[in-house]
Design goal:
The complex is a heterodimer. Chain A is of the alpha/beta class. Helices cover 43% and strands 18% of the residues of chain A. Chain B is built from 6 helices and 6 strands. Classes of the chains: A alpha/beta, B alpha/beta. Chains A and B meet through α8, β8 and α10 of A and α1 and β2 of B.
Chain lengths: 376, 184
């Protein structure tokens, strides 16, 4: 199929439709609203379900209900709306039904702003909702990758009966890039042995997140985490750039990762042996890839559009082996490549002592720069 | 190869579509391209801008601090982007909407009355295509034919009767800019 120019949000919506999405429930919020708009037009025209719910809380509970029937369902939102969905998400995790959720992140906390941000990494990766549950989190850095990950996420959600969350940010939602859309998958209702579809002629099935007996709840928690071991073994994804001979490695995901790519190329032009690791699955995180790099490189630079959330996963994997530097632009600020190139120079010329608190060192640098960072 | 272009002006001047035309042309010419608009609260306040990056490999940063090329369709955009253009770059200025001359001597500034040229062709809304035409002599990655083909392939059906006028606007912009460039 030929490449077409797709806007990120619309591409996410259409990719879900092509993947056999049966029902969409959502609520508008910038910078994600084009997903909802696309769904509002396309889903009814294809005879599928579209509901603009009265709130995000309602939307996620509609998703929960529809998922219990075995239908392919999704919702999308942006940071404040995702926070509202967290209770429902925990219930979905506890009920073990497959759901796809997209967060087109914006600056926060609170109402924040509508600029691109990666401030919801920890919320997505560590939980957000209450209780003890793992979930898959994927981060695209381009329109094509957003399409590919949406397609993948439905299969992963069903294979592992889990939540798959895609975290993009406002710039990926709003940008247009050439991309190839996959062909339309046939629409059909999958027959799962757990789905509630009416008990006519078979044993009754019950889907619930209630386990009043703690020993049963404990078994549920253990089941979720056995499944998680399988996910960790099979579903780690990352993209490597110029890593073969790299002496220093920049690590960044999503938009921060692609901005870092420009900086890494500039550093290469200067003859510096710098590479880039762009984690695509943030949960499960490519800990092993980072740990292996830590055996042979001289330093890491972690770049994020937040105050150092993925940094903690890199630190876990690095385990103090090589010097680590952090550079973050939180609050809806997108870094420019020259800022990251400056950080690469600093890492190469004066690597921090291993064990130094990378976030604290960064915070001190940002404070010295007048709190305003590099520029407005 | 990578080339960045910023297009800025008031809402309603066709800023975003001008960028999309370049993006379509680049895609159809087999290149990588990223188009990104300003989508912040400023889009409710009347100003609009977008960045187009054309490259022959995977594109990194979607934004650029110092673009080599820009189109500014009004005075606030002229004031904002003139200092940011890379040395040796080019700035296409809509002369119809500014009341001052250039401040830089280390870039090429093309002053072109896009509104008047568009009106003379027959439709004021063509001013963005005049400006895009004026940019092309400075954009070796795309030819006038590439952009015309892109317009033909991607102009919404309801505007198709305007195709010949769009071509005229592009060519007129191109000629004026080419004339000014050869005098530099």
């Amino acid at each position: 199929m030929a490449r077409e120019l797709w806007k990120g949000n619309e591409a996410i919506a259409e990719a879900a439709i092509r993947a056999g999405l049966q029902a969409y429930f959502g609520y508008p919020i910038t910078p994600q609203t084009e997903v909802l708009e696309w769904m509002a037009r396309r889903m009814p025209e294809l005879g599928r379900v579209f509901v603009q719910a009265e709130s995000e809380v309602a939307a996620i509970n509609m998703v929960y209900g529809a998922a219990c029937t075995g239908a392919r369902v999704m919702t999308t939102s942006s940071s404040p709306g995702i926070s509202l969905m967290m209770e429902g998400l925990s219930y979905i995790a506890g009920t073990e039904v497959p759901v796809v959720l997209v967060n087109v992140m914006r600056g926060g906390p609170g109402l924040g702003n509508i600029a691109p941000s990666q401030g919801d990494y920890q919320q997505a990766v560590r939980g957000g909702g209450h209780g003890d549950y793992p979930r898959i989190v994927l981060a695209p850095s381009s329109v094509q990758e957003a399409i590919d990950l949406v397609t993948l996420s439905f299969d992963l959600a069903e294979k592992y009966r889990t939540i798959v969350m895609i975290i993009a940010d406002g710039s990926i939602g709003q940008m247009m890039e050439p991309a190839e859309m996959p062909p339309m998958q046939p629409l059909y209702h999958r027959q799962w042995d757990w789905a509630v579809t009416g008990k006519m002629g078979r044993e009754r099935r019950v889907l619930s997140s209630i386990y009043l007996d703690p020993y049963q709840e404990e078994q549920t928690n253990l089941r979720l985490f056995r499944r998680w071991q399988e996910i960790q073994a099979n579903e780690v994804r990352s993209r490597a750039y110029y890593l073969e001979d790299a002496e220093f490695v920049v690590i960044g995901f999503g938009t921060a990762g692609r901005v870092a790519l420009s900086a890494v190329r500039a550093a290469r032009q200067e003859g510096l042996k710098v590479g880039l690791l762009r984690p695509i699955s943030l949960s499960p995180f490519p800990h092993q890839v980072v740990a292996e790099l830590a055996q042979r490189v001289s330093g890491f630079l972690v770049v994020e559009m937040n105050t150092g959330q993925m940094l903690e996963d890199v630190e876990l994997a690095n385990a103090g082996r090589v010097p680590l530097r952090f550079y973050g632009r939180p609050g809806g600020v997108v870094p420019f490549p020259d800022e990251i190139l400056h950080e690469i120079h600093a890492l190469v010329e004066a690597p921090p002592t291993p064990g130094e608190d990378a976030r604290l060192a960064w915070l001190e640098r940002m404070t010295r720069l007048g709190g305003d960072g590099w520029q407005r | 190869m990578q080339r960045e272009i910023v297009i800025a002006g008031f809402g309603g001047q066709g800023v975003l579509f001008a960028g999309q035309v370049l993006a379509y042309a680049a895609m159809d010419a087999g290149k990588e391209v990223t188009w990104i608009p300003s989508y912040g609260p400023e889009m409710r306040g009347g100003t609009a801008n977008c960045t187009v990056i054309i490259a022959d490999e995977e594109i990194g940063s979607p934004l650029v601090k110092h673009p080599p090329l820009a189109i500014v369709l009004n005075l606030p955009s002229f004031d904002r982007y003139e200092p940011l253009i890379q040395r040796g770059g080019a700035l296409i200025v809509n002369q119809s909407m500014v009341d001052r001359g250039p401040k830089r001597t280390d870039i090429t500034e093309v002053f072109i009355p896009c509104n008047e040229i568009a009106e003379a062709i027959g439709d004021r809304r063509l001013l963005n295509m005049v400006a895009v035409g004026a940019l092309l002599p400075f954009l070796p990655e795309l030819t006038l034919q590439d952009v015309e083909k892109a317009l033909e392939a991607h102009l919404p059906a309801r505007h198709r009767e305007l195709l010949p006028l769009n071509f005229q606007a592009l060519r007129r912009g191109y000629e004026v800019a080419e004339g000014q460039r050869s005098r530099v």
